[in-house]
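Recap quiz, item 2
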Amino acid sequence: MTRVEQGATFAVWVTASLAVVFLLTPLVVTIAVSFGSSPVFTLPPPDWSFKWYARLSATKGLAPSLVVTSIEIASLSTLIALVLGTLCAIALVRGRSPAQEAISTFLVSPLMLPGLVIGIAMLQAFRELGLHGAWANLLVAHVVITLPYVVRTVLGALSLFDFAD
Amino acid sequence: MLLARGVTGPTGLTLAPFASFFADPFHWQVVANTIKIAALVTLVSLLIGYPTAFALAWSAGWSQLVLLAAIILPLSVGVIVKAFAWQIVLRRDGVVSLAMVKLGIWSEPMRLLFTEAGLVLGATNVFLPFMILPIYSVVKLIDPRLNEAGATLGATPFYRFRRIILPLTLPGVLTGVVFVFSLSIAMYVIPSLLIGDRFQTLATMIGRSFLFMRNEQFGSTTALVLLALAVFGVAGSSILARRLEPSQ
C-alpha cells in the first residue's frame, strides 16, 4: 500500500464513522426523549421515567388494530413490490424496447411527487373507480410507493450482471 | 402515476394555469429554492455516501454490523419522528449549538433550526441511506483483482481510481443521485418542520394549496411543474452518465 492509498483508506473510515454518528443522531435523540419525564421536547430531559410507555399500553385498541395492520400491509406490500420490481428490472435490462428509458423514468416517478400529492391523487382515483376497501387501497398505495426502490436497486445491481453465463 | 394524472386532468384542458403560474415571480423564487435545496442535499449525500459505501463494502464482522445498523435502522423510523428529533438537536439550546460553542467555533449559541443549513442537514440525514445502498451494491461486485492489476501495471492510485473504480461505480452513483434528487425535490414533511412557512418549496406549496387553500387546480398545476422538474433532473443525470461512460 502506498501512502496515498493509506490516506484514502483512512479518509474513507473517518467519513464512514462520522456518517454512522450522523445517521444515528435522530434515533438516539428520539429514544432519549421518550424516556424523559418532561411533557415537552427537551434534551437532556430533567428526569428519566417510563410514564409515556405506561400511557401507551393503557391506550385501548392500539395493539390489535394498528400494529397488526401495519405488519400485514408492510409484509404483503414488500412481497408484491419485490416480485413485480425484480421482473420490471430484468425486463428493462434485457429488453430492447425503444421506450426503455421512458419506462424506467416512469417507474421512479412516484418518488418524485410528495407523498401528500400521491395520497390525494390516489384517494380521488380510488373514489372514481368505486373502491372503498381501506385495507386493499392501502396495500395498492404501498406497492406503488415501494416499487421504485426495488426497481432502481435491482437495476443498479443487474447492470454489472453477466447474463451470458 | 396514471392515478396522479387523474387529478391533474382538469387543468390539462387549458394552459392558462401554467401561464399564470410562471407569470408570478414568487413562483420562480419557489422553483429556485426547490432546485437549490435538492441539489445541495444530493451533493452532500454523495460526498458522505460515496466513501461510506466503500467502507461498508470493505468492512467485515463487527464494523460491518455497526455500519449496516446505522444505515438500515433509521429507515424504520418515520420521517416525522426524525424531523422532530432534528428540531430538538438544531435549536439554539440544542446539542449542535452547545458543541460548537464548546469547541470555540461559534462565539455564541446559534439557531440552525429554520435555516437552510438546518434543512439541508436534516434532509441529508433522512436520504443518506438511499445514496449509500445503491453505491454499495455496485462496489461489492467490483473484482478487487482489477485494482491490483492496475497497480501491477504501474498505474498511480489516482489514475486507478479515475479509470477503474469510478467508471465501475458510476451506475450505483447514478442510481443514488436519482433517488436522493427525486426524494429531496419532493420532500414535504422535512421543510415544513425544519424551516417553516417562510421558505416555500414546490412541495410545501402543493400541500398548502390542497390542505389549507382548497385550491386543487393550483395544487395540480404546481404538482405537474414539480414532476416535470424531477423528470428533467433524472433524464439529465442519465444523459450525463452516458456521456461519461465511453471514456472508460
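The first helix of chain B runs from residue 2 to 12.
Chain B has a mean pLDDT of 78.
End of item.
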